[in-house]
Specification:
Elements lengths: L11 H8 E9 L6 E11 L1 H13 L2 H13 L6 H15 L5 H5 L3 H26 L4 H14 L9 H6 L1 H7 L4 H4 L9 H12 L4 H8 L4
Antiparallel strand pairs: 1-2
């Protein structure tokens, strides 16, 4: 199966359209235990759902659709019509053809791992860039810090390295995302020294003890 490519088409004027989305609440009728749509809409800020929605709009990635659907139900929200339409079309194709559910949706171990790795790689690039912004360290030291953190969580990367992710694939995935969180790094230099130090110390808490102490001594 060929890799799905994200079409980079979001300009700054459209970013808030993904970040601040109107969702209809789902109300549960207590007696009949049936679902009913509430009349009012609420605007929801959800970074994960925003990124997933953009990925779905750009590539029709089924995993993004599933994640949006599950997240909406967890938040008691009615899923976007685009997601429901996509699922209806795929399920209809499955029901009225000889194709398997996996083939209709484009599912499989490889595509699922790729989707998870793309999200992981964006987080790794964002983490390294944050370390470089808040601490007086070089890329190798930042990569080591991330490597040690993952190691402490017993997370092992396959067929790649953190440096490869940062310099190649992860950078590309990040540039093709909405980059909401990443954009926050651009205002670090405008923070007061006190607030910047607070954020830096907060950032060190997720690392092993020796890395944590080393970073604290390198706060800009």
């Amino acid at each position: 199966m060929t890799k799905q490519r994200i079409v980079k088409e979001v300009d700054p004027s459209k970013r808030n359209d993904y970040l601040l989305k109107p969702f209809t609440k789902i109300a549960t009728l207590s007696e009949e235990n049936e679902l009913e749509l509430a009349k009012e809409q609420s605007y929801v800020v959800d970074f994960i759902m925003s990124e997933c929605m953009y990925k779905f709009d750009s590539t029709k990635n089924p995993y993004a659709a599933f994640e949006i659907f599950a997240r909406c139900i967890e938040k008691n929200l009615y899923p976007p019509v685009e997601i429901l339409t996509f699922m209806r079309e795929k399920l209809s194709e499955y029901l009225y053809s000889e194709n398997t559910l996996d083939s209709v949706f484009g599912l499989g171990k490889v595509s699922k791992r790729r989707y998870k790795n793309e999200k992981r790689d964006i987080k790794i690039v964002d983490e390294i860039d944050a370390l470089l912004k808040y601490f007086d360290i070089n890329t190798s030291e930042a990569v080591e810090a991330v490597d040690r953190r993952l190691e402490s969580k017993d997370i092992k990367l396959q067929d790649t390295t953190i440096l490869d992710i940062y310099q190649r694939g992860g950078k590309e995935e990040l540039e093709n995302s909405l980059m909401f969180k990443y954009n926050d790094l651009r205002i670090v230099d405008d923070m007061s020294q006190e607030y910047k130090r607070e954020q830096a110390i907060k950032l060190t808490k997720k690392y092993p003890k020796d890395i944590k102490e080393r970073l604290k001594n390198k706060i800009k």
